[in-house]
Input
Amino acid sequence: MVAVAKKRDEFQAFYTNCNHITAYMIAMLDCKDGMTILEPCAGNGAFIDEIIRQQCNVYITAIDINHESISNLKKKYSNRTNISIQHADFSLLNSAVSYDRIIANPPYGAYQTSEKKMQLKVAYPGIYAKETYGVFLIRAIELLKPNGRLVFIIPDTFLNLHMHQGLRKKLLNYKIDSIALFPSKFFPGINFGYAGLSIISIKKEAPENNWRFPIYKGFNSSEDFSCLLTQQKNKFEIAQLNYNRLQKNPSKSFFFSTELWISNLFEQNLPTIEYFCNVVTGFYSGNDALNLRRTELVTYGLKKYQEIDSQMICSGDQEMNPSPLNGIRDDKCWIPIVKGGNKRFYKPSEWFMDWNEKTVANYKIDKKARFQNSNFYFKQGIAIPMVSSTSITGSLLNRRLFDQSIVGVFPRQGQEHLLMFFLGFFNSKVCNSIIRTINSSTNNSSNYIKKIPILIPSNEVICKTADLVDDLYKLATERKIIESDLQMLNEIFDTIYSVR
Ligand SMILES: C[S@@+](CC[C@H](N)C(=O)[O-])C[C@H]1O[C@@H](n2cnc3c(N)ncnc32)[C@H](O)[C@@H]1O
Output
C-alpha cells in the first residue's frame, strides 16, 4: 500500500508523505557521511524522516517560514543534535553558509504580497518570480557547494512555458542529472493547479557542451519510482536531452517526444515559422459587449452580444478605405472580425466590430482596449485560434480584423508565395504533433507558434500543396469539408517531415 497523504496550509504546504517518492529523492541526493544537508522548506520534515530512516550520518539544517512548522520540527527532532532548525524566508535568505546537498518540495505559486513580489523581482532578475518554485531552485543552487547536488520536486511547467526561459537558461549552467515526470494525481485529494509534477536532480558542476541527461516518464503509480534505482529505469527513459541542442534553442525549451521524427526535428536547429512570417496577436475593443455584434448564425453569447443589423455593415473592402486604421466616417461602419473557434481553411464573417471613426479613436486611448499590431489589420494572413479544441487549425484572414484570441500569421516580404503552403501546414497532423510537443496544453499562443520548426520542400511540392489547399479552401467555403479530405494533405506533410 502506498502511503500517500497530503495536507495544505496557507504557505502552499503540500507535504511529500509518499514513501516511494521520498525514498527515490533521498537516494538521488547521494548523501555521504559527514555531509551538510539543507531542507529549505521543511514543513513537517518528510525528507528529514527519510534521511533518518536511511541512517545517513549527516548534518541537517531545516528551514521553514511557518512558525507552527518550526515549533513542531523543534519538538520532533529535539533529541537529535545533528539537526538544526531555523525560522526564515528562504527566498530572501542571505547566508554565507553553503551545503553539500539540498532537497526540497518548495511551495508552488504561493501567494506573495506586492511588496514581496517587488523584492523577489530585484533579487532574481530574469526569473519569473511570481512562481515561487523557480526562485527556490535558483536560491538553492546558489547555496550549494561546488560539486554539490540538489533534488527538487516541482511542477513540470518549467520545461517549456515561455515565462520560465530565464530559469531554464540558468539551469543549463549546471549538470542536470535526470528529470522524472509524473502526474500530480499520485498525490490524491490535492488540487495543486498543476497537472504534471517532476523530480529534478542537479549537480553543481559546469557541464560539457555535449552533456546529456535522461527524461523518465510513464509511471503507473508512485511505487514505480523504486525501479529508477535499478536497471529497470531504462523502461521509463523516454528521451535523452542534449545540452548542445538545448543551448542552440533560443528559448532553451526542453522539448522531447517519444516519436523519433519529432526528436530528430528539434535536433536539427531549423529556422522556425518566425523566420518566414510575422506571428502576432490581435485586437480587443476593451468592451466587446458594447462594440461587438454577431450574426444570427452565432449560437453562443446571445444575451451578451446584440445581433448585427446587416444595413450597418461596411460594404467596402477595408483595404480600399484610404485609412481603415482611423475608422470609417460612414454610417455603415461595422466591419467583420475573426474570433476564436476552430474551423479549417475558411471562417465565414459572423462577428462585427464597431469601426466608427470616433469609436476607433477611443480604442487607441482606452486602457482596457488593445489596439495592438495594427499594421497587420486588414492584411492577408492565417488566423490560428489561441486555444484548440482537438487540434490546431488555421483559416484565411481574408483582410479582416482579428481579435486577441487569434494568432495572426503573415508571410514576410518575399515569402508571400508560401501563404497557402502554410495554411495547409497549420491544418496538418504534423503541425499539431509539433505544437503539442512545444506546449502540451491546448494553448497555441504566439510564443509557442513562433517556435515551430519549418521544413520547406521543393518548389514543385510547394505548388502541389498550394493547389490542394486551394481545393480544400473551396470545399470549406461550401461547408463540404470532412476529415477524410485532409488525408492527402497529411500525407504531404508526413513526407516533408519524415514521419514514420
Ligand atoms: C510544499 S510544502 C513542503 C513541505 C515538505 N518539504 C514536504 O515535502 O513535505 C512547502 C513548505 O514550504 C514552506 N514555505 C513556504 N514559503 C516559504 C518560504 N518563503 N521560506 C521557507 N519556507 C517556506 C511552507 O511553510 C511549507 O511547509
